[in-house]
Amino acid sequence: MQINGTYKLFLDEISTFVSPKRIYTDELRRLAWGTDAGFYRLIPQIVIRSINEAEVARLLQVADKYELPVTFRAAGTSLSGQAISNSILIVAGKHWEKYKISDDYSQITLQPGIVGERVNQILKPYGVKFSPDPASVKYAMVGGIVMNNASGMNCGTHANSDRVMISARMIFPDGTILDTGDADSRKAFSEKKPEFIKEIQNIRDSILRNKELTERIRRKYSIKNVTGLNILPFIVFDDPFDIIAHLLVGSEGTLAFLSEITVKTEHDFPHKASAMLYFKD
Description:
Blueprint: H1 5-14, E1 23-24, H2 27-32, E2 46-49, H3 53-65, E3 70-73, E4 88-91, E5 99-101, E6 107-110, H4 116-123, E7 128-129, H5 142-147, H6 161-164, E8 165-171, E9 177-179, H7 183-192, H8 194-209, H9 211-220, H10 233-236, H11 240-247, E10 257-264, E11 266-267
Parallel strand pairs: 2-4, 3-4
Antiparallel strand pairs: 1-2, 5-6, 6-10, 7-11, 8-9, 8-10
């Protein structure tokens, strides 16, 4: 396919730092990447298999420079078309599979390209598990699970991605990297983007001043609710960095690229059973 206009400018620029083996512009592979597990189809102009944070940061900077939309994709198991694009598709699968378990097994830090079931296999010897349990956990990757707040039927609302998140590492559209679990990263971000932090605080304070709205948010998120952006953090957390991290959950890649997340693990009972119980009343 002949790439023209701003997409050609974008392609020429990223070709200086991304291997051509990881950039797809041919019709066949673009067609293959034009669908996910759903029945929607959008054919991307350019597909890029990303390998690390620095590369994604530069890709976002170039896309921002030419005002080109970007969509992120992990496993593509979504049924609703979140992982497809008719513009630029950045894939975070292979090369994004690193993890680190805390000494007491109560936390695990994950990159977005590791499959949910693989996380549980890693944690099983320690008697703990990855709480979110979507039906596609055998195939879905952490990035998609978190950014869709996919949780399945078993974890309720007490153990979805939002409730078990401890911190997140993310890349903003201008290439800025923030790690909410790192004090130095927080300090640097505060100095670079003080207005951003101030606006988060202003939104938080505005919501908390409205008691009726606060209670409505609390009630709506006491049940399963992934409609729109996740605004629960504004009434749960005071720290703006905690709010920013939790805003990512369910945002479907619209706010930032999730490059790493640290979550609490959950006790995995060794003996389980399913049963149907009947009661007279």
